[in-house]
Write a structure and sequence with these properties.
Elements lengths: L1 H22 L15 H10 L1 H6 L1 E13 L2 E10 L18 E5 L3 E6 L8 E7 L3 E8 L18 H19 L5 H15 L5 H12 L8 H14 L4 H10 L13 H13 L3 H13 L7 H13 L3 H10 L13
Parallel strand pairs: 1-6
Antiparallel strand pairs: 1-2, 3-4, 4-5, 5-6
Helix pairs in contact: 4-5, 5-6, 6-7, 7-8, 8-9, 9-10, 10-11, 11-12
């Protein structure tokens, strides 16, 4: 009798195993069913319910996090068991669609989650089996605990020092152009530079303006860019060169080869920079006088500027003098400015 019952139990187990292999495992008691085969509907449920997240995560995940590397950071991939992950896997946040980028293929889906801000981006990789399952997580945030944060200064609080360091890290990651998030990383860098520049810090202001004008990050507009360049110029005479170029070329949509839009502002900026000791500004003034960039060409003034810059060791000015010929002489009373 006992052997007969044992054979019956084995037969039932075999039938159940066959059903599971054909139909897929049913949800256990208290475990939610698949929210939807439509990934957009699935994501809404997954992002808002920790229970759904626990039910539809793979036994192992590929995890990518930023780790210190030299003076910056780089993404490092590891394999994690799902039981070691924190809860929730996806933090609740705004549901605005423009803050979530989705790429859905036949059986795979990628979500770039920007709801916590560009400095805290997450990327989730899903694959469809019986239901969509999370198989990879990328965390592109910078852990402040890994940073060597300098003491606060007159122009940057400790929080702004952290922002400045983060800006440099994101800028480096974006400049590498090796990652799908390149444009978002550049924009994250700009946001952090702006945070650091809020008190008028010249270094952060210069970096923010340069990144905005590079077209790798959103353009901040004329007034904001001018304010940043002026803040940079107050701290660094050399910042007069990009400020003068900005006055001539205007915003990023200006076609190359156009006349200088604000020649008086550009010339005055270079003159101030030169008076504060910038040999590069002297050379730029020389080029402007030689080509007629600001006013009618004036060879004597150009030579005077080049000679002053060459005397300060500027190599470009020395090359300009050589190009113009040693026979050229500038009057001793010529005013470069």
């Amino acid at each position: 009798m006992g052997n007969k019952m044992n054979r019956s139990n084995k037969g039932a187990a075999a039938v159940i195993g066959l059903l599971l292999s054909v139909c897929g495992a049913p949800a256990f008691a208290g475990q939610p069913g698949c929210p939807s085969a439509d990934f957009k509907v699935f994501w809404q449920a997954f992002a808002s319910d920790a229970g759904v997240q626990r039910a539809f995560v793979g036994s192992t995940l590929q995890s990518v996090t930023l780790k210190p590397a030299g003076e910056g950071m780089e993404p490092v991939s590891t394999t994690l068991r799902s039981g070691t992950l924190g809860d929730p896997l996806v933090r609740p946040g705004q549901s605005a669609l423009e803050l979530v980028d989705m790429s859905i293929q036949a059986d795979t889906a990628t979500v770039v989650d920007k709801r916590q801000g560009l400095s805290d981006m997450k990327v989730y990789q899903f694959r469809r089996h019986d239901c969509w399952t999370l198989e990879g997580v990328e965390d592109w945030s910078v852990d402040p605990r890994t940073l060597k944060v300098p003491a606060a200064t007159a122009s940057r609080t400790r929080e702004q020092q952290v922002c400045y360091l983060k800006g440099g890290i994101f800028h480096g990651l974006g400049a590498a152009e090796r990652y799908p998030l390149t444009s978002q990383l550049h924009e994250a860098a700009l946001q952090n530079y702006l945070c650091a520049a809020a008190s008028g810090d010249p270094d952060a202001s210069w970096d923010a303006a340069a990144l905005s004008l590079s077209q790798m990050a959103p353009y901040l507009g004329y007034e904001k860019t001018e304010a940043l360049l002026l803040a940079a110029f107050r701290g660094h005479p050399e910042a007069g060169l990009p400020l003068a170029a900005f006055y001539c070329d205007g915003d990023v949509d200006t076609a190359p080869g156009q006349p200088c839009q604000a020649p008086s502002k550009a010339k005055d900026t270079l003159a101030q920079s030169a008076k504060r000791g910038s040999s590069e500004a002297l050379t730029a003034l020389g080029a402007a006088w030689e080509t007629g960039r600001f006013e009618a060409p004036d060879q004597q003034r150009a030579l005077g500027c080049y000679r002053q810059a060459a005397a300060q060791g500027d190599s470009d000015a020395k090359q300009a003098l050589s190009r113009l010929g040693a026979s050229q002489r500038a009057a001793s009373n010529v005013n470069c400015y």
